[in-house]
Amino acid sequence: MRVTYKRELIAKQLLERQSIETFIPMRYETRRSGMRKKRELVPVIHNLIFVHTEQSKLQRAKERIPFLQYMTCSGSGEKIIVPEDQMQRFIAVAGTYDEQLIYFRDDEVNLAKGVKVRICGGEFDGQEGVFLKVKGARDKRVVIAIQGVVAVATASVHPSQIEIIP
């Protein structure tokens, strides 16, 4: 879902008070406050929040939170619903707050150029994605995408930890 004016953390609090499961991709950033530097956890993509609940419960919550909006597919105008397995893979990687993760808009990555793989070992063990060269990285990385929304490239993974999925 989308929220307006960078209110994703407020929306998260309001939804969680109603026992609605949410996820916001976050990362650490160093910010200056006067003469001090402060390391804080901030949203990677402003105005984006993933919500996991039944449609009826979400509709009631949406009525109480006027700045919460459905994300729709630009082609068909349909609400974007992320499949459970795709979301779990995305959360498993994006939820680590690894500073080497690189995020992309859906249109910035061409997954057709890569090879479907599974990571065997390490921090991202068992995750599946597409192995390809991405902008902003020296080597190939495994990209886990949520179609129509966002993609995340993992930290470097040694080729010995990658299994090609036929």
List the helices and strands and how they pair.
Layout: E1 2-3, H1 8-17, E2 21-23, E3 26-33, E4 36-43, E5 50-52, H2 55-64, E6 68-69, H3 84-94, E7 102-105, E8 115-119, E9 128-133, E10 140-146, E11 150-153, E12 162-164
Antiparallel strand pairs: 1-6, 2-5, 3-4, 7-11, 8-9, 8-12, 9-10, 10-11
Explained architecture:
This protein has 166 residues and is α+β, with helices and mostly antiparallel strands. It contains three helices and twelve strands; from the N terminus they run βαββββαβαββββββ. It has helices at residues 8-17, 55-64, 84-94; strands spanning 2-3, 21-23, 26-33, 36-43, 50-52, 68-69, 102-105, 115-119, 128-133, 140-146, 150-153, 162-164. The strands form four sheets. Strands 7-11-10-9-8-12 form a six-stranded antiparallel β-sheet. A hairpin with a 3-residue loop joins β10 (140-146) and β11 (150-153). The longest helix has 11 residues, at 84-94. The protein is globular, with a radius of gyration of 17 Å. It starts with a strand and ends with a strand. The mean pLDDT is 92.
Strand order of the largest sheet: 7-11-10-9-8-12
Helical residue percent band:
10-25%
| Assembly level | single chain
What is the count of DSSP helices, taking H or I runs of 4+ residues?
Answer: 3
Taking pLDDT < 50 over at least 5 consecutive residues as the criterion, the unreliable ranges are: none
Strand content: 25-35%
Number of strands: 12
Q: What is the average of the pLDDT values?
A: 92
Order of helices and strands: EHEEEEHEHEEEEEE
The separation of the N and C termini measures 33 Å
Structural class by SSE content: alpha+beta
